[in-house]
Amino acid sequence: MNFKKYLKNIEKKFVVQTLDSDKDPYDYLKRYIKEAKYRDWFNRNYPNHTIYDAVGLSVADYVKMKRKLIPDTEQTIDTEQPPKLSKPEQ
Question: Is 31 buried (19+), middle (13-18) or exposed (0-12) by CB count in 10 A?
Fold first, then answer.
């Protein structure tokens, strides 16, 4: 295993360990989708991770939950990439 992959695994284990193991992983997804403050906090503190990876679920689980909670997103695929900022015109 290369060093980068090793560090990513260590960091992922830390993220998972900071979550309450008694709580349903889907509760974390619901909170992430519905609460902007929680989503911002998670993205700020764990910029190299997705919420679904952190709780041990898949992108399909995330998309399914998002469609369930916010039906308008059925046609939208969310890659969880932050928007690119455009350079100011000079």
Answer: middle
| pTM listed for this prediction | 0.62
Which amino acid appears at position 5 of this protein? K
| Distance in angstroms (rounded) separating the CA atoms of residues 25 and 46 | 17
Residue found under tokens 């560090």: 7
Joined together, the tokens standing for residue 40 give 């911002």
Name the one residue in this structure whose structure tokens are 């700020």: 44
Dist CA 88 CA 90 (whole Å): 6
Q: Rounded CA gap, 12 and 8, in Å?
A: 6
Residues in the chain, how many? Answer: 90
Rounded percentage of the chain residues whose pLDDT exceeds 90:
23
